[in-house]
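Dear colleagues,

I hope this message finds you well. In preparation for our joint manuscript, I am sending the GCFC2 factor (Stercorarius parasiticus) sequence together with its predicted structure, so that both groups work from identical material. I would be grateful if you could confirm receipt.
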Amino acid sequence: NSREFITKYRSCRRQVRERSGEADHHEGMSSDDELTLTEVTEFQKSKDNVLEDSRKIFEDVHADFCDIRKILLKFQEWKEKFPDSYYDAYISFCLPKLLNPLIRVQLINWNPLEQNFTELEEMPWFRAIEEFSDAKNVSETK
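The corresponding structure tokens are as follows:
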């Protein structure tokens, strides 16, 4: 939906430039200052719809399986109780693929170009992974 909006938006701007005879335009170098109020409103509405849909993704999932901290605690328990099985299953290779969808949902609204954006290191999922990694390093040194 947002790709269609952007494509439509760019083609409209291109047509306006062609009609006005603007010759010094370089593709990809335009500014968002040219956005009309209608276009900004449409974009915000589309963004709000995406955010609303993203809140529903894990609606029917048990909390133990959509909270990164709880998932990592389960893996930590497995590693402590059955280390041979844990390492034989190559869990360190599986975790990024497992956590990827959960992290992506949390990053949908993240925009590092905004003035008041949250640093990745301050996000709860990042801290949970960091704590899990620290626990992993501590147990490996034992």
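For the figure legend, we might mention the following. Residues 61-141 form one domain. The chain has six helices and no strands.

With kind regards,
E.M.
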